[in-house]
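Supplementary Methods S3. Input chains for the assembly prediction are listed below.
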Amino acid sequence: MKPMHIGLLGVGTVGGGTHEVLRRNREEIARRAGREIVVRVAAARNLDKARRVLGPDIDLTDDPFKVVAHPDIEIVAELIGGTDLARDLVLAAIENGKHVVTANKALLAEHGNEIFGAAQQRGVSVAFEAAVAGGIPIIKALREGLTANQIQWVAGIINGTTNYILSEMRDTGAAFEEVLKTAQSLGYAEADPTFDIEGVDAAHKLAIISALAFGIPIQLDKVHVEGISNLARVDISNAEEFGYRIKLLGITKRVADGIEMRVHPTLIPHRRLIANVEGAMNAVLVKGDAVGPTLYYGAGAGAEPTASAVIADLVDVTRMHTADPDHRVPHSAFRPDQLSDIAVLPMGEVQSCYYLRVPVFDRPGVLADITRILADRKISIEAMLQREPAADEEEVNIIFLTHMTKEKEMNAAIEKIEALPVTTGSITRIRIESLDGK
Amino acid sequence: MKPMHIGLLGVGTVGGGTHEVLRRNREEIARRAGREIVVRVAAARNLDKARRVLGPDIDLTDDPFKVVAHPDIEIVAELIGGTDLARDLVLAAIENGKHVVTANKALLAEHGNEIFGAAQQRGVSVAFEAAVAGGIPIIKALREGLTANQIQWVAGIINGTTNYILSEMRDTGAAFEEVLKTAQSLGYAEADPTFDIEGVDAAHKLAIISALAFGIPIQLDKVHVEGISNLARVDISNAEEFGYRIKLLGITKRVADGIEMRVHPTLIPHRRLIANVEGAMNAVLVKGDAVGPTLYYGAGAGAEPTASAVIADLVDVTRMHTADPDHRVPHSAFRPDQLSDIAVLPMGEVQSCYYLRVPVFDRPGVLADITRILADRKISIEAMLQREPAADEEEVNIIFLTHMTKEKEMNAAIEKIEALPVTTGSITRIRIESLDGK
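Predicted structure tokens for the full assembly:
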């Protein structure tokens, strides 16, 4: 049988890795897919570099629109990143009747609904396993492995850079800025790390996960996002003392009134498997009503882990080539005419437990004032910690862990506590998730 | 579109759970699958009980052969267990052109090659996600999620009963027999627990995993099997002291000379995620050459977790209904004409590190005698532990952790050490796996 011909857009880290793994495991992949899968033509900005990476046998062009229009190409692998050119190319490929495989989470988070709609109309597949959690087959788990379930919630460590930084802060006791520098020197963080450390990358992935879990459109603008750049060492060690680890989680949850979508630092009980995911690794915990909790762990980035997901998609498309479009796995897990318009909750309506660090003057009555404010909002306290101040200090931190309350109640209470004359600065507020299956 | 009609063989725990989840999540499942999936007819031995479980709307029969021949049925779900009647029914269903979904690991471990061959010839699918690790979509990960990779090894906690017993032994310090009784009273272990505790159930699953990972036929008779019934408390606490946990692992590995397949208690470094999988949960660690290590965790048994996997298969078959058979996902991950006859290694050729507990009289020269025997076999020692004997004891245990060596060298050394006049009993030998990606 003649090989399946791939057109590659982009010969960077992922494009190079994809070519390398396709080449190295060519025989093994063909034994699974039923046909050889080979890169036939590639588009790159730097043709000399691309030639060195791809070797002599692959046609090269600096015009990516030639690739998406190439008559021999059946699948286009979009690995250039970005959202403008990538969108035009993917839509053009679809228009030309090509299947598309993409690793581009930003593209799908921003234009996924449009792209899936165009693909559906044209009868081609857009596959995107590599867009979320790198080599972990989490898209497949959500779209195919857990189809029996009402998904109740998903909580994931879906950004390796931030998990590396948090792991190092905990292990070494170093401050955020210091660890960030190490991460940059090791290649775990970009020169401009904003995208990762402020939670934007995680939000892209969460918007996609949430759509697949609940059968809703992708709604990036409704994700509540907080990063880790304000996280202090003292909060990590305080959390530790109460038996928690702090992780940047992407959380999406179905509650009575709608869907929660949020990315923020989170205290997790240290006994949970996901609390022990260290370094740049990713893990996604999915709770289904029938299966209970399941966890998927692996490398969330890197040339070959990402290539692993890209190629899994290429094999899927190759295997399913003859299925009529109506019988393929739907892009969003649910069939396009079966999406739900259930509301995404504003953050104020989200319920959570909280860790609070309140900096105060060490005076009589402080605790009474604070606990009165919490009680007025019906926020009950689960645990409290106050250490004796250092000899020459009159400031002290009081730590509270609270029971479940609505975020808007907590925000109002925090505002009142911060207005107390004894409060010396901003309150640090970190949400807590027990992830215990409820 | 008319519903997909299922014929159910068996209305026990899994059959009842499957019906319940299909009923409860009917709408959600139809939104994903494109058609409703409903049980049309079921076969059970106890018709009264089945009627109570399934309600009034489903045809019932005590003749399962009527189900596999039923003209309205497109998929037969075989959930009766056992290998004789189940084999006849599955082969009859295939012969009648029905797709088959089964949760029966013993059936596939013993007759999988024959069943897959028959299905291939008849152009129908046999799906079996529920046969390995319950609700965890590990079959899908191996057959579809990791198709880019040369799988290097798989190591799994694939029997919940034994993992529950080992977790409890470690947590409570209780002996095996004692914990087994608790497990039986809680329903985690059968009245006759042999199948689980001697590793037979894990061996069934491992034979299937190995076939999918490496593209080889299912070869149950070549799995080396050791259970946990001889495991002593002292070995669990000794392991702990060296920084290890003991788990019953199913391990299959591709090495230069062939394939390893083995089920046995194993020391694992306690920092590994899989070492922290507690209670009756399952987890499978898969190492691919491109993706690196990935882990899949969840409930390995129980009515609804198993139903989750059964129904995922029903949805897969429903979605892929029109794909021509040649383009479906192959039963064994690799296409049937692409299986490999690479040898399964006899256990003597398998390399491993070892934990040894040698009971000896506390006499001068003992250590010299033992280490000489190990050195003669080129077995080098990584760590050693000998405590002072209790006041009234002249016997003492010496613990060795060794570097890698071939099992046959280790066996020969053990035989020689046991023959020493100072050795007071059998040596306890437990293999160690670092699972560090190599």
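The mean pLDDT of chain A is 94. The first helix of chain A runs from residue 13 to 24.
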